[in-house]
Design a protein that fits this description.
Layout lengths: L11 H11 L6 H21 L4 H15 L6 H7 L10 H11 L7 H21 L11 H6 L5 H31 L3 H22 L7 H8 L7 H24 L1
Helix pairs in contact: 1-9, 2-8, 2-11, 3-6, 3-8, 3-11, 5-6, 6-8, 8-9, 8-10
Length: 255
Amino acid sequence: MGHERIGFLPKTQIWRHIVDQLSHFNNSDADVSQIANSTLNNIRKTYEKMPNDDSVIKAIQYLTILTASANTNNQIDFLNNNGIGINKEISLFSLIRSAKEFVKTENGSLESNKIAVDALLNAITTYESNNQNNQLLLFDEQSSSIWANTGTGAVFCDLARAFFSSFTDRYLKYYLDREASHAINDYNLIESFSNKLSEQISRHAFETSKIMQSYAAGWFNVHSKSNLPNIDEIKSFLKLTFTKLREEFRREAEK
């Protein structure tokens, strides 16, 4: 399909650095090891359920519709007809508003819904920020021109990677903070711990998300040629993605 093949990722040194940093906040090697391994085990257990999570399914569905809309004769009508309310023109404001509305759900975890929405908004704003001309104008026509040229597997891949990177970043920080709070009794120290490791965790999450580059573009190109992918096809994509992510976290734990 002409896309990059990615196997295991050479990023173990980043997780090792995070673990090393933990030792500055706790004098016990056993506690540091417990914090690190519990974090990875918790995220692996959570990710096992994610392919069927309603919020995550809707987030990927949103990105698929948004990307595919650029290949239609009337992008605005296509978005509106497929549940993404845009009104007269595409702006960052309208995308943010419609994304929040689209991923609303009465099923599943409120926690995963919040993280999925935040990750989706991050993917949208990051893509627009990376493709605009030095300024952010929420109501400017610039947004429309940016999103009018997104109908490729490569763009979907970029958006999907940004989503999974942000999603993983948030879950890693959540579990790492939770585990650290059991072993670090000083509130100020816990806050310092979170701030110090934030950038490293984000970098680790971004590199981990690279695993889906080997198939995301091809998946989009195959499933959006004549129609949008159905829910089962989206679940299949998510199952493959989260299985690969879980395998990466298992490998990290073994190191």
